[in-house]
Write a structure and sequence with these properties.
Largest sheet: none
Distance between the termini: 27 Å
Number of strands: 0
Strand content: under 5%
Radius of gyration: 18 Å
């Protein structure tokens, strides 16, 4: 009969951590759609240059990396979650401050803004989890 206990290489049983990792995967997919697929498709249908409305960055890749780390729990997971959360929160709040000083509510900036609201919310939840429930993250010594 198969052993029902979890090995050290598996993540701890936590529905919350699984939720956060899946939230990051959904946000990454949504970000790719909002930042790349939708703008390229729109540009092609309106005979504009394909890259006219793209906001270039690789944050979706970082979000997938953190989502994977939350699921697999390598030793650096808590450090990665905390540092990525702080960096994301500071960047997004700075961008919001600049944007809201002189908002441009075009479809492109509105999509960007809505995306950032959800990303900010996700990283606030992740940072709160790191602070309030650090035991959900494996460390190098555990």
């Amino acid at each position: 009969m198969r052993d029902m206990t979890r090995s050290r290489s598996q993540a701890p049983d936590s529905g919350w951590i699984i939720f956060l990792s899946h939230l990051l995967f959904v946000l990454a997919a949504w970000s790719v759609f909002i930042k790349y697929v939708f703008p390229v498709t729109f540009a092609l249908f309106t005979d504009e240059a394909w890259n006219t409305h793209i906001f270039w960055d690789l944050w979706p890749v970082a979000h997938v990396w953190l989502g994977w780390a939350l699921l697999t729990q390598p030793g650096y997971t808590r450090w990665l979650a905390a540092s990525m959360s702080v960096i994301e929160i500071v960047i997004i709040l700075t961008l919001f401050t600049l944007f809201l000083a002189e908002p441009e509510w075009s479809i492109w900036r509105t999509n960007w803004f809505v995306n950032k609201v959800f990303v900010l919310s996700a990283f606030a939840l992740i940072l709160a989890t790191v602070v309030v429930r650090p035991e959900l993250f494996r460390t190098r010594s555990s």
